[in-house]
Amino acid sequence: MVATLAFTAFEVFAGFRAGSLALLSDAGHNFTDALALLLAAAGLYLQGKPADHSRTYGYQRAGVIAAFLNAATLVLISLAIFWEAATRILHPRGVDDRLMLWVAAAALVLNGAIMLALHRGQKGDINIRAAFIHMLGDAVGAAAIILGAIVIHYTHWTYIDPLLSIALGALIIYTAWDIIRESLNILLEGLPRGLALTDVTSALGRIEGVLDVHDLHIWSLGSSTHALSCHALIEDMPPSESERILKCVNAVLADFGIHHTTIQFEHVPCVLTEKGCHMAAPDAHNHDHSHRH
């Protein structure tokens, strides 16, 4: 974060010296990169805190909130870039292509190094992935500025500078949109990515002893922790006998990556069977009793 902030200050100075909007746009993006790294660090710290009496699920969504804020700042900075680029197209300015080239090359090296540092953690955590996406967008932007500087040097076509800025802004929004969509889905307790409600319901309905599944809800506590609650209709039996069914249910759900479960067994249909979130499994009443879990 310190390295990114220091380079941002240098890039702003160089952008004004070179008269390059692309460099200034990249500096703005670098500043949000520093913010992204700060938010990612804060999110990691908070989501690692244990649950307490007021936050019974813990602080796992702190990282999701940080990811959403990161992506939202990217969209805002892109809108500012579009506005300034339009102004530059209407009123072209000369640029120092040599300074533009060397500063962009330095930015590419810096962002590439930070991306390598973040790469290991970005696959399983949306918070770290948001910071990684920031850096990836900036690295691609720096490469584009290098190509733009070369084009300006040989063609003297200064329109390439604001056009590059527009392309960078579009790239930033494109990379940020997936983070916004996924983080909002988690915050709104939507179905986790990669899961289909019908698949889970069908798998539960195939368990011997489960007659029906309803009031089924699946949501994410954090970027990689999923929870489920449901009602399951079973035959009237003592709790000691239903323990076998419960173990099978949890084993099936574990295959879907769901480990935090609340299963309510019923031996007669409840009011939610007809009026609630009813999702009976196909052929739930015609089990193949030769199937074992």
The structural domain count equals 2
Biggest sheet strand order reads 1-2-3
For the sheet with most strands, the description reads: 3 strands, mixed
What is the succession of H and E elements?
Answer: HHHHHHHEEHEH
Structural write-up:
The structure is a single chain. The chain contains 9 helices and 3 strands; from the N terminus they run αααααααββαβα. The protein has a 3-stranded mixed beta sheet with strand order 1-2-3, covered by helices on one side. It is mainly alpha-helical and 293 residues long. It folds into 2 domains: 2-187, Up-down Bundle (Alpha-lytic protease prodomain-like), CATH 1.20.1510.10; 197-275, Cation efflux protein, cytoplasmic domain (Alpha-Beta Plaits), CATH 3.30.70. Helix 2 (21-47) packs antiparallel against helix 3 (61-90). 63% of the residues lie in helices and 10% in strands. The model is unreliable at 284-293 (pLDDT under 50).
Concise account of the structure shown:
The protein has two domains: 2-187, Cation efflux protein transmembrane domain (Alpha-lytic protease prodomain-like), CATH 1.20.1510; 197-275, Alpha-Beta Plaits (2-Layer Sandwich).
Task: Give the secondary structure arrangement, pairings included.
Elements: H1 2-18, H2 21-47, H3 61-90, H4 97-119, H5 126-155, H6 160-187, H7 197-205, E1 210-220, E2 226-234, H8 239-255, E3 258-266, H9 271-275
Parallel strand pairs: 2-3
Antiparallel strand pairs: 1-2
Helix pairs in contact: 1-2, 1-4, 2-3, 2-5, 2-6, 3-5, 3-6, 4-5, 5-6
